[in-house]
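A note from the maintainers: we've had questions about how concatenated examples are separated. There is no special marker in the raw files; a new sequence line simply starts the next protein. For clarity in this README we add a label.
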Amino acid sequence: MNYSVAKSSEQRVSILEGVARCADAKNASSSALEKVANGVILKTTSPDKEGEMKALPAESEKQLWQEFDAVLKEPLQFVALSLLLLKSTNAGTANHSKVWEKVSVYDGVLKDRSLSAMSTDDAFAWIDLTEKMILERPISNSLYAAHRCHMNYSVAKSSEQRVSILEGVARCADAKNASSSALEKVANGVILKTTSPDKEGEMKALPAESERQLWQEFDAVLKEPLQFVALSLLLLKSTNAGTANHSKVWEKVSVYDGVLKDRSLSAMSTDDAFAWIDLTEKMILERPISNSPGSYPPMCLKSLAILLFWPHWQVRKRSSLALERILAVEESHFAEALADVIFTETINGFVDQTLRKVMQCHQDPQSFTVPGEWDNALITLVALNFPSVRDALWSHIEKNIAELDVGEYVRIPEKHVLIYQCSEGHLYNTEVLEFDEGEITYNMRRENKAYSFRDQLAEIQLRRELAEKKRKEGKLTAAQKQVMEKELAKEKVIRDEMRQMYVAAEVKIDEARAMVAADHLGAMIRTNLLFDYCIPLTRSHLVSKNAADLFFAYRDIAFPHTEDYLDELLGSTILRVIGAHWHVANWHDEPLNSALQRSLQLLNERAFVVETGDDVRQKFIRSLVNMFSSAFQDDSFIFEDIVGATQLTVLYPMIREILSPSSRFNDDIREATLTLLQNAIHRRFLKALLQLVSLANETEDTGPRVVSLARSTLAYLDNDSCDLRENVIKVLSAPQLLTRLVLSSDDSRFAIECLVRVFVARFDPVEAVAEQASQLWYASVFHMRPEMAEPLIDKCVSEVAFVRESAAGATAAFVQEFPDKMPALLDKLEEVRLI
């Protein structure tokens, strides 16, 4: 093979010098060797014309055949030797067929080691071998491979590709000096006549010899479904509809179900699926005339039902195009029949089971996975806008996620998770295999008299090194093997437990994530999912990433993607602040303090600020910060605006960590956080606060969380700022909020406390505050109760001057309504005076 590429005289002489030395040729001159080289090249290795010498010397041939049987492990040598043997034997002989058969199934040359070592000369030999394999194949060989080549020709769209293909064909056919234009013309003719998928050419019949061979194969190929599909398609394409041969193929294919067997599905490639689609289309459109209109082969309908839902998108696309062509001819008859089959086979589980087999049998099922398996279904259901459907979905989500024991997941040790991530049969805790130091020095104590101390230390070190080498090589002692088996058994128990816990949590969390992404309003109403489950589970080594995905769904509601990537920055930063065990890889390199400062800066730029010109806003901000700390002690409620309700809900876990007394963050970050609250929550930010209470009111919840929020808000009616008191009353003016809390709350003290505070506010010295309080009192359908007597006296001795004044007016009005309570009021007043 090296001779054939030796173009220069120097190269050929150099090669022949080696040959001469091997043959004991003495004093061979350069001119003589050159002459011999030219003769060898012309007679045996020229790719342009055949030489006279076809047979090898008997001894050499015998040696080559011995090498041929043993050279399979060396692909490049196998290629060269196979080419030499094919060139030295006549096509059709037993030896030629023997080489041909062995080469036809040999794939060693495609291995990584062969490809990496392949030179240009080796590639030339590979080309020559491939050419001879195609041109000199035995007559009895199946034409199934030719159908594969046919498919490759059909996708050669460009002139360059077709010319390249035909150049090879021209060489095989001894076409001399074929020009590109001539080859292009031939290529167009070949493609139009035999391989064009767009229109039928003139050549419909196969050569007689090939056709007879194909029919023989057709009768014997039933056990190979994929070959049966390809061969049936080829025969249907080469025969006219209505002929006996066409009907024979049609009848056999119409009842053939081998392609739906597990073995066929596991071996089916995308090209095989394409052939299956084409065959199904021809079977439907070219039914025999005797077949009644509207009746279709059940196997074809079932096949199309599977192919329309095939995991690979290209197969689905091609199936859809085939379906369009069928409907254009068959119209509603076929649509009705196919819809009935799809419904039936989906309901009975056939479609699902078949497609699962396809995914499980392929090496890379991830390439078939459609992202967001829950998302599309839930988005569609929510988009129906039926409250009953939405409520049922949320009820299912809340019930499922409530089954998770958050504390148990958080307590899972990291070591157990690492064991779970370690593949079955591999030992994670290799520390148990460490060699015992006492075992290493066991014999040394008895031999201490025979060696010096230095020699003993050297031998101990040598034994340590030998032990470590054996450990790395996997050579274990009997004791170590026993320990390893016990440890593997322990790890298997842990792995099975972790797998069970992960599978249970992964489905529930992913359902919740998809539902949050589908129904934003419902998600923000149910913030307990965020604070009770999502945030704590981010601290679980097992499901931290799943919980982070749920958090990102909430984040996407509050902070849609923008050009400044604030959404991604906040998602990563908040997870780091709250101590999540999973982090976003691309954002984790930046120091946390730096990321926090950037986040707060961007947030402050977004929060709109309206200057008030007084100090009321500062007090209001500090008051509301304290209010949030108490109101959000267990859970949180919802806000909405630029940096308001929804945004503060998502930011709350980070804000709470930063402002907590045990915060590890510096004063600059704490001050920036307070500035954010100052910018976002001020006296002109009433809309967000009104929406907070309004949304809380829509939940119709009268539990401790809502009562705590209302009590904290009512406490600010004692504030010196009249603006703050007025705004607080407006916040509490959500329809029937206080009425529901007073009548239905389990906290009996809250009802009297609420009535007293609102009643005292009706007598506020500021007219606007008093008017707002009166509107709230009558809108809530409140009435004075006798139990209000003693709390009113407590207000009369308040430390705040305007509260004492307001309480005095309220007490006078109370006495007019309940004059019989005057003695009790006087007794309480005397008691307070003595204190």
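[label: protein 2]
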Amino acid sequence: VSGYLSAELAATCNALGFYDGQKYHLEPHCKETVRDLIRYLRRDEGGSHEIRRYLGNAKLLTTDLLPMVQCHHKDVQLFDIALRLIVNLTNPALLVYNEVIPTDKFEHNYYLEITSHLQQYKEAFNDHRSWAPFTERLSELLGKNVDDRSEDDQRTVERILILIRNILHVPSSADLDQRPDNDASIHDQVLWGLHQSGMIDLLLYISSSDQESLFFMHLLEIICLMLREQPADVLAKTASQRSAEEKNKDDEELLRIRQLELQNKMKKNKKYFGTRHSNFGGTFVIKNMKSTSDNNDLIYHKPVHDSKYISLDTEKKPVKLPKNRQPLKCESAERKSALSVRLILKQVCVEFLNAAYNPLMLHVRECFHRGRAQENDESYYFSAMRFFMEFNRHYKFQVKYVSETLSVQTFQFIQKYLETWHDMMTTDKKKLPLWSYRSHLALRAYKELLHNLAVMDRNEDESVRESSKVIKSNIFYVLEYREMLLTLVNLYKREKYSKKYLVDLLETLHIFIKLLCDYCKDKKMVIQKTAVRRKKKNKQKKSKSQAQDQASAETIWNLACDEVALTLTSNIECDVVPFDATLELDMDQQKLEAIKKIQFHLKNGDNNQAVAMLRASREVWPENDTFGTNSADTAEELEILKDIFLADLGNDNIAAALTEEHADGSDDEEEDHYPQILERNFEVIDFLKRFSSPKVVRICNTLLSTYDTNSETTNHCIVRMLHRIAWECKLPAMLFQASLFIKFRNILSNYEPKHKELAKLAVYILRKFTEVAATNKTVFVELLFPKHVKDACEIVDGYGSYQDSKNKRIAWEEHEEEELRRLDEEYSRTNVKENKVDWILDNIINKDRSRTGVIKKMKELGLEVPQSKPKGLWEEAEEEELKKLHEEADKDLPDKLLVSWIHE
């Protein structure tokens, strides 16, 4: 900070007043001084934020602002001004830097300095006396009727809520807040202060009141921050006294840590201390490895327990991985707060579920649909959904408490934002950690929805089980819902997603597959399938030139002009509106559309509609006399209609269109590809085979690297996923990976009872490997490469033996050929009028046969194949019919009616 600015800020801070330990004494111009500080912060621009840092170093909030508010909160004007300054000072550092953590060295240090100031501010609010004036003021404002509050009152309520949000948003300090579980951290102390001051009761009142819906978005954010780092299952099972199960669990965890420490200590002693005297424990000669001199062996000056531990790379600097290729780190963690704080939060969750969850989440959802939410509000929506649905599941599961978010629309809402945030990770790479974190929140909400469906299936109430079936039928039926997790698996990259995201993804996939298998166990399921339909278009070559078309149009007009003239002289009462203001077309475009409509009506013979459209368009577009003047007579209108009829407006002639629609002329085939929704029976094994890929094996392999620290649920999901690939899909060779075998070796050598499933899987895969190795010696080389389905099948069955079921031809058996001959003879004997091939396809036993395959087989067997009629040629019966109609028709009859008769 410059000297002049530092002096000015110091003088301004001194002009506020002083605190003697019991009362804060105000200076005469205290209010104006607070306003000056607000103006200073408003102009504090740039990356340094020197004014904000100066006020933080001066501890203005702790020494002046909080004592001022506590002692003079009755002064409403001073309270509101001081509240504005406190809210500004406590704004999150990420918000100060526009949600982008600075990468510049100096700016990043400034960012860390501001964060440390915020942590000091949070520590200042850990006492209920700091919250008491804000609670009293908020209670006074909420006591007023909503209609009686002024705009200033509404702003004050909002600022108090924002202040609570800012304080709870401050991250924990790594140096000052390193506390074990069941101990009160700074965050817990702030929550305790909010509880003692009565602020939490006011927050619950606002969230349950329909009249306070204006503040629901702030309430959602505050509640999510209050429950930050709290495990929902632990909170739901919290009681006033520790249960026996919780005590046993803590004892087992302590014993496990103690045993692990002893094992590591023993390994270290065995590694560095041998049976020889210590004088000979540090120098070795490595045989058959030359030193820098050609005549001597290499001397190794380190204690070595085994020759395999000799390494010459210990002092080498490892190659640094580029920043854009480093695995994404996840800083979020869960901890158990003090028992008193957990009891308070549990009571808050119970009351919130009973009175506020459904209406608040409904209002927030409507804000999203109407675009009234801010950018980061979706994150808090998904966090609240995940936490309270999990809390409800572990506490006393009742569907009515979470019915608003337990629906098919919620699945669609989550999928929408998962796709949106993945696209943002591609386009906005500077904020990649932010989009990845939000995607993780959405995935956790999706996982909790699946957990709730699984609990609903086990519910005693029949209506609850039926509701679960309805939701699952919609999810499993629609292709996009069913394959969302498969898409997420294929899109996973360690540079974009954290390790915890990967764990949640695998656990979500496990739950989804389990629900799907249980749903399809007792019945067949029909699903949507998006296929590409090929539509053959007839592309008729023009046999007439443009001049001939014009001559034909004039001939038709000469035949029909008398009828049009008669219509012009008659009284027409058609109500026509040529201009539609709701369309996104300008006046000129709609004018052209009106002309096309007139031409269309004339060519269809609807003269009344054409004349009515002409006269109505004249009133809308009187300029340039395009539709004639207001005083136009019949002859002038007839001439205008003739010009419109003969004009080339890009519309096809009606007779030509009819001829093209029904013509049999030879044409080229053009395929028009567009998606079509089909339905087919669903097979679970086909769905599971889509997860038999190197990507899924790599994900399981990555998570197995930390099998000893994984939760039992995570290890179970890994085992089940690999078991589905090896056993259910019959592809054990996909797991023949060297890196996977190393982990199997560690599991078997350090066996523990809790890793029983992992050990059983390892034994099964190793036995399969030895069986294959007895017949295929190249399988040892295959350990080094990832394998697809084709590779896994060929390793076991032999190279070149794999046949894709999609490309495999259906061979004709001998009895099928006899059946084809019999059907051909039967068709010739019965004289059926239907096409022979179509009749055979209707009567053949194997309905999988295609028309092309049947025709090809008939040619191979020497059977007569009906020749397709040449397109564009008239049969004799059709020519006779045309001659007869022409003789019967009146000479003045328009040609278009003759064409319509032919088609009738």
